[in-house]
Amino acid sequence: MSVQTLYDKLWNSHVVRQEADGTALIYIDRHLVHEVTSPQAFEGLKLAGRKLWRSASILAVADHNVPTTGRAQGIADPIARLQVETLDSNCAEYGVNEFKMNDVRQGIVHVIGPEQGATLPGMTVVCGDSHTSTHGAFAALAFGIGTSEVEHVDGDAMPVDEKVQSDAGSDRWSARQGRDRQGHRTGGDRQDRHGGGTGYAIEFAGSAVCNLSMEGRMTLCNMAIEAGARAGMIAADETTINYLKGRPFAPQGELWDKAVAYWHTLHSDDGAQFDAVVKLDAAQIKPQVTWGTSPEMVVAVDGRVPDPAAMTDAVKREGAERALHYMGLKANTPITQINIDKVFIGSCTNARIEDMRAAAAVAKGKHVAPNVKLAMVVPGSVW
User: Residue 220: in which H helix or E strand, if any?
Assistant: First the structure.
C-alpha cells in the first residue's frame, strides 16, 4: 500500500460509498449531541417515524444553556429551560446516553468526550458545533455538522461533500519546539492568518506539538476552525494513549491492547505527500492578544493596535475601523496599556482541569484588579 497521510488513513477507512460527482458516504463512529442543534433532528425522526439505528454511538450533554451556579433551582430563562428539557425528554425516548445538567460528569461537549474516553483515535466524530475539530487531537477525523445533518447521523453513515473533506487536500503545519524564558506559551498561542487553512484538513506536527499535553493539543485542534480549516488533527502517540488509559468509555483488557496496536499506526507515513506544508518556529511565536472582533484581529502581547489607515486592503481596512469603533480602542495603542474590564476562563478552549490549574497558579496570592468588574471561571467538567 502506498504511503498515506493521517487524514488519508482516517478518510479511507470510513468511506462507505464514493460517487462520481465527488460526494461520498462515510461511516460515523461517534455522534456528540447537545441541546441547541438536536431538537430539530429529533423532531425530524419523529415526523418520519424513524428510530435510531445505533443509539450507543451517541453521547448527549446539555452544555450551552445550563446555569453556572444554583442549578438546584433549575433554569430561570424559559427558552434555555425548554431546550434542556427537550434534550432530556428526547434522550429518554430514544434511549440515548445523556449527562444531564446535574450529573457530575456534565460539562462542555468538547471536554467530556475526551475526558470520558468517548473520543478515541481512529474515530470519525461529529457534533452540531463548529469546534468539533477539538477531538482531532486524538488522531480522529472530527468536524462540525449543520443542524439538518444532525438528524441523519444516527450511528450509521452520513452524506458529506468530499470536495470539502478530501479533494481540497491535506495541509501540515509543523512547529519546531521552543518556549520563551517564562514558558508562557500554550496551544492557544497559534500564529496564523485567519482563513489560512480554508479548504484543508490540517495535521499539526513537529516537536512543539508533540511536547504539548493532550489539553494543549485539544486547544490547538479546536482553533483550527478559526484558521478556516474543516478539521485539525494530531497523530496518536504515547501521550494520547496514556491520557485515554482507564477512561470510562475506553476499551479495557484485551480490547485495550488491540486498540493501542492500531492507534500506533495513526500517523502520517514517512514520505507522505501534503498539498501544503507550513513550517513555524514556536520560539518566535509570542503570546497573542486580540484587539478586535474576529479571530484574525490579533497581535503579539508587546505589539500595538493596528492603524486601519495603513491597511491597503479596503475590506480589511473597513473591518478594522468597525472593530476599533466597537471595541472603543484607538490605533497604535500599546496592547499592554489596554485595561480589561471582564475576565472569562472556561470556554471550550480553556475549561479543562489543566487550564484551571494554570489560571490558579497565575492568580495565587493575588486579587482581581480594581478595573475588572467581572471575573468568571466555568470549569468544563469535574471529571
Answer: helix 214-222
